[in-house]
Amino acid sequence: MATPVPPNKNPTPKEYLPPPPTPEMKQPADYKKTLQAHKDHRVVSKCYEFFKAYRECKKNWQEQRKRDRSS
Questions:
Q1: Would you kindly state where each structural domain of the chain is located, as residue ranges?
Q2: C-beta of residue 39 within 8 angstroms of C-beta of residue 32
Q3: Terminus of the chain with fewer CB atoms < 10 Å: N or C?
Q4: What ranges does the record list as Pro residues composition bias (predicted)?
Q5: What separation in angstroms does the CA of 34 have from each of 6, 21, 37, 70?
Q6: Can you tell me the distance from the alpha carbon of 40 to that of 17, in angstroms, rounded to the nearest whole number?
């Protein structure tokens, strides 16, 4: 069993702290529109044929395993 680690009593030096927020880091006014655009980055039609073939192959493989186990 692991032993608990005591808390660090030395504060983090200022040179290792993250910088304070700058105006460039502010949330853009159109952030909702920007994030909405990222939802459409996947085009399902491009992958449909691949996954259809995968499902058929897996189905055939599982049926073959069932037949092999029953005999």
A1: 14-70
A2: no
A3: N
A4: 1-23
A5: 44, 21, 5, 55
A6: 37
